[in-house]
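Q: Convert this sequence to structure tokens.
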Amino acid sequence: MAKGQRAEVGRTAGGARPEFVQSLERGLAVIKAFGPDGTRLTLTQVAQATGLTRAAARRFLLTLVELGYVRNEGREFSLRPRVLELGYAYLSGLSFAEVAQPFLDELALKVQESTSIAVLDEDEIVYVAHTSPRRLMTINVPIGGRDPVYCTSLGRVLLAGRPDDEVDSYLERAKLVAYTENTETNPKRIRQAVLRARELGYALVDGEFEDGLVALAVPIRDASGGVIAAMNVSAYSLRAGPEVLENAHLPALLDAVAKIEREMQSSVKLGSPLA
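A:
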């Protein structure tokens, strides 16, 4: 070997590794041929775009038709929604918390209070994201930590997103413990609070789970309108009472949730599996 030359370890004379599957490369090239300006292509156009012979392009196209990734109408071919499955595995690897975290950070910086996101897991809420501003009195919750549903703002919003029969079933089996003197433990009044949260679009809880802690939560919805999570702003009442949260922080919270929902819908458009 001449000085200055590097050995191409494991590569064939053509420059590709021995394990390189050229047919896969060509199949992906056919899919990529359907770009923004080529939603409907003829066999000839696909062959030209990929550098394949017409015969080879036809074999790949008909295979993709058989697999449900490509639609064939007369002389033209087009991608079917199922092709989005190919990107879904990557997008689904990005957790919901990773998508939402920048917006939590932005909100916490704006309102200078703690903010969290939780999901419903049977009869408890589970925290999946949290941010606290740097200050002397702050509220910290562990990711993966669990709290009750009935006496937290996040829990009431999540419960409000469930059908009435599920709300009633929960209240029948839940152990309604009084954490403070303000904790509501009457099932009928809790149900009223849940229905009010559904009507208003947010839940406000003042000192029911922890003395002096006030929290306001709103739902996070998917593209179909279903409640998949909830996001809140929480503070100590000595610094920010219920009026401050409702009048000053609610608009900022709603704006942050809207941004999260738009980001989620963008991800779905890019990579969610469709039938």
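The chain has two domains: 22-79, 94-271.
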